Amino acid sequence: MPIHEPSFDVLIIGAGVSGLIAAREIQGSGRSVLLLDKGRGLGGRLASRRVGAATFDYGAQFITTRDARFEAILNQGAEAGMMTEWCQGFAPTSDGHTRWRGQPAMTAVAKYLAQGLEIRTEKQIVAIRRAGDRYSVETSTGDLHFASAVLLTPPVPQSLALLAAGEITLDPAMQRRLDGIQYERCLAVMAVLKGPSLIPPPGGLAPTSGPAAWIADNQRKGISMEPAVTIHATHEFSLAHWDEDRMESGRRLLDASLPWLGAEVLRYQVHGWRYSKPVQVDEHPCALLQASPPLVMAGDAFAGPRVEGAALSGMAAAETLLAHIHR
Ligand SMILES: Cc1cc2nc3c(=O)[nH]c(=O)nc-3n(C[C@H](O)[C@H](O)[C@H](O)COP(=O)(O)OP(=O)(O)OC[C@H]3O[C@@H](n4cnc5c(N)ncnc54)[C@H](O)[C@@H]3O)c2cc1C
C-alpha cells in the first residue's frame, strides 16, 4: 500500500553536488528539506568504486574552483579531512591551479556536503504532480512525498520526463530552452593492473588522439592500495559503442591505452554515463519553472559543466526557492 510521507518545505530530487549544496543553504535558512536519490549512495557523478583492494574514481576526477564561496566549502571539507589537494595540473605543463580530490576518494566530497541533511537513497522518482498549493512526488514503489516547493537536479532530460509523467506543462519558451540541452556520453573503464602503470605523476593525462579522453592512475593519485586505472572514452567513441557489449568496448579502450598501462590487466569493469557532460550550458544559473508553488531546476547544465558549476547552480536554486516559497 502506498505510504504518504510527512510534508517538507522543500523536496530535492537528486543528491549530487547541486542538490546537496542547495539543501545545505535551504536548511541553513530554517526550512525543512528532504533529498531523494535513486542511487544506492550519494554524489551522482561524483562516483567512487572499490574492487578488492583497488579504489577507482570513475566519474568526476578532480574539482577546480574560481568562486570564493565554493572554495570556502572545499577548504572546510579539507579541514574536516574529507578533501585534499591532488595536484596543480598535469604533465607536460602545470598551470598552478589546484585540483581537489575527495579523501579517501571522490564520494567523500558528497559525504561531507551531506552532513546534517535528511537524505533517502534508493528512491527512484517517477512523477511530480501539482497537489493543490503543494507538489506530490511519487516513487517507483508508489510512495508519495509532499512539499511546498520542489527542486529538480537530475540531468535535464530526466527531469523533464518526471514533469511530463506528472502532467506539469511548462511555458513553451522554457520548454524549448530546456529541450535544447543535450549531454555527451562517456564509457568509463576501471582496470586493476598487476603492476604500476606508466602514467606519469601526479597520475592523470588527457591523450590528444584516439578513443580515450582521459586516463588516470588511482594509486598514483593516492586513493588506491593497488594499481588501478580509470579510462574515460571520448564522446564519439562512447556514442558509437554505446549499445555494444560493455566488456567488448572496455577491451577496445584498454587496447588503445596500452602505451600507458605498462602492466597486465588483471580484471576490469565498465560503467556507462549516459549524461556525462552538458554540451550546452543554459544562460541562467538555474530555471524557475513555476513561481507558486515554487518549482526549480538546477544542475551543471545551468552554471557550467563541472562540479563547480553544479555547486553554483545549487546555490542559485536555493536562493530562488527561498525567495518564492510561501512565508
Ligand atoms: C566521466 C565524468 C568525468 C567528469 N570529470 C569531471 C572533472 O574532472 N571535474 C569536474 O569538475 N567535473 C567533472 N565531471 C562533471 C561533474 O561530475 C558534474 O558536473 C557534477 O557532478 C554534476 O552534479 P549535479 O548535481 O548537477 O548532477 P548529478 O551528479 O548527476 O546528480 C543528479 C542526481 O540525481 C539523481 N537522480 C536522477 N534521476 C533521478 C530520479 N528519477 N529519482 C531520484 N534521483 C534521481 C542521480 O542519481 C544523481 O545522484 C565529470 C563527469 C563525468 C560523468
Would you mind describing this structure in some detail?
The structure is a single chain. This protein has 11 helices and 17 strands. It is α+β, with helices and mostly antiparallel strands. It folds into 2 domains: 8-42 and 114-181 and 281-324, FAD/NAD(P)-binding domain (3-Layer(bba) Sandwich); 48-112 and 183-278, Polyamine Oxidase, Chain A, domain 2, CATH 3.90.660.10. Helix 1 runs parallel beside helix 11 (307-324). It is globular, with a radius of gyration of 20 Å. It starts with 7 loop residues before the first strand and ends with a helix. It binds flavin-adenine dinucleotide. Flavin-adenine dinucleotide is lined by residues 13-19, 36-39, 44-46, 59-63, 123-125, 153-155, 158, 162, 186, 188, 232, 273, 276-277, 299-300, 305-310.
Summarize, please.
The chain has 327 residues and is an alpha+beta fold.
Helices, strands, pairings?
Elements: E1 8-13, H1 17-28, E2 33-36, E3 48-51, E4 54-57, H2 68-79, E5 83-87, E6 99-102, H3 107-113, E7 118-120, E8 125-131, E9 134-139, E10 144-152, H4 156-165, H5 172-179, E11 183-193, E12 204-205, E13 212-217, H6 218-221, E14 228-233, H7 235-240, H8 246-256, H9 258-261, E15 265-278, E16 287-290, E17 295-297, H10 300-303, H11 307-324
Parallel strand pairs: 1-2, 1-10, 2-7, 10-17
Antiparallel strand pairs: 3-4, 5-6, 8-9, 9-10, 11-14, 11-15, 12-13, 13-14, 16-17
Helix pairs in contact: 1-11
Flavin-adenine dinucleotide is lined by residues 13-19, 36-39, 44-46, 59-63, 123-125, 153-155, 158, 162, 186, 188, 232, 273, 276-277, 299-300, 305-310.
